Amino acid sequence: MREDVEKVLPEEIIEKMNLAKTILESDENLGSRSLIDNLFAMTSIKADSDTEATRIDKIQMRLSVIDSFYSTNMGRRLYGLKELAEKISELGDDEKLREKLNLYINQGDSDISGVFTKKYGIFKHGIPSADNLAIESNVENDDEGFKAISLISKYFYFVSNHNFPIYDSLVRNNIKKVLNHFHIKNHFTGKLIEEEFIRELVRVCDKDKFAEFDNLLWLYGKIQRGSLSFLADKKIYINIMELLRKRFLDNLSKYADENGIDLEVIPKEDSLKAEFTESLKNAAKSFKLTLDKDKKIFKNDGEITKEKLVETIFKNATSDNLDIFVASQLKDDEIIEQLKKKQFISDDLYTFLKFCREVK
User: Fold this and answer.
1) Which of 164, 281, 310, 336 has its CA 20 to 30 A from that of 79?
2) Cα-flanking dihedrals φ and ψ of residue 116, to 5°?
3) Rounded-to-integer distance, Cα 201 and Cα 118, Å
4) pTM of the model
5) Dihedrals φ, ψ of 82, to 5°?
6) With contact defined as beta carbons under 8 Å apart, do 93 and 45 qualify?
7) Exposed/middle/buried for 231, CB within 10 Å: 0-12, 13-18, 19+?
8) Terminal CA-CA length for the chain
9) How far apart are CA 228 and CA 274, in angstroms?
10) Angle, vertex CA 329, rays to CA 327 and CA 330, nearest 5
């Protein structure tokens, strides 16, 4: 039972939850959330009008859209979406499912637990997930192992009109830091398994605050990951990245001067070119931009502008490494002030970025 729920969250965190909500509602890139809400409304599942086959088709359509938007990777598992749709369909129509979810939140429900604990789909090697744990534990970007906890929690979130907590890596990796920042007592540890984690989410956050709480953790998590495209349209994104490249160039120029590196001439000799490249990689790494140590950056030699040099470095960085670099820049007060001065970010996002700087 939920006897120990802290029904009143501190005003400070509610303020940041509302701020995150305002930012996300004003961001056209987050329109997909509204699209998902609309999809659930248009594909409403009712006991008196939908056959079992129709119900499964509607659920699978919803799951496919959520999987695509949130990159939960269920689409990588053959037959996974269909099997999950069939399992959710067993719970009944939307109204019946919402009743079960409400029961689960308040005192637990074995049917909902069964959806979480079941394994879905197979990989191309054709070995069912339950029989191939060692291989599947190495699947890239598969945080939930062979289950579908993240996707299922998001489906329940939308079908319940946002009255179910979302579980994913953004929540798991950041919730303790955020709660500790606001001095909210919690028991989140790395040892909690998925359902235990969800139960603790329910304990610290009252039901009518799940959506706002998710907004806060989602936005904070995206900023910590350097996922800038979720916070800006295409034009602004290009302008921000140009600003970050200029800042990188300034730092790189200082590094070159201190270490006797000529940034405007790429050596002809292979050994010197390799040495030059290695020096640039070390310089880039010192500014949180890691490049592949085995990758050749320069195909040609001769004179080059510093600006072109930096463009080449950025083009050779992986997407993940660029995210790490951007995340480091968004923690820099000088960068945050420049983003505001150039009106690349709203006043609300500026305030939220400053908040992110404070969370340790």
Assistant:
1) 164
2) -65, -40
3) 21
4) 0.84
5) -65, -45
6) yes
7) buried
8) 32
9) 32
10) 65
The count of residues in the chain is 360
9: its two tokens: 């969250």
- Helices assigned H by DSSP within the chain: 11-25, 31-42, 52-70, 80-89, 94-106, 110-117, 133-136, 149-159, 169-181, 194-204, 210-225, 234-259, 270-286, 306-315, 319-329, 333-341, 347-358
Query: Half-sphere exposure of 83 toward its Cβ, with a 13 Å CA cutoff?
Result: 18
**Tokens standing for 108?**
């637990």
Tokens 């990689």 correspond to 281
56: tokens are 């499964």
Q: What span, in angstroms and rounded, lies between the C-alpha atoms of 215 and 213?
A: 5
> Of the candidates 215, 233, 166, which has an alpha carbon nearest to the alpha carbon of residue 23?
215
Place of tokens 């160039």: 249
For each of the chain's 360 residues, which pLDDT tens digit applies? 344 444 468 899 999 999 998 998 876 555 568 889 999 999 999 988 889 999 999 999 999 999 998 888 888 888 999 999 999 999 999 999 999 999 998 888 889 999 998 989 887 777 665 544 443 333 333 434 478 999 999 999 999 999 999 999 899 899 999 999 999 888 887 777 788 888 888 888 877 788 899 999 999 999 999 988 877 888 999 999 999 999 999 999 999 999 888 888 888 887 888 888 888 888 888 888 988 766 667 766 677 888 988 998 898 888 899 999 999 999 999 999 999 999 999 999 999 999 999 998
Diameter of the chain measured on Cα atoms:
78
CA distance 26 to 18: 12
Is the separation of the CB atoms in 88 and 62 below 8 Å?
A: no
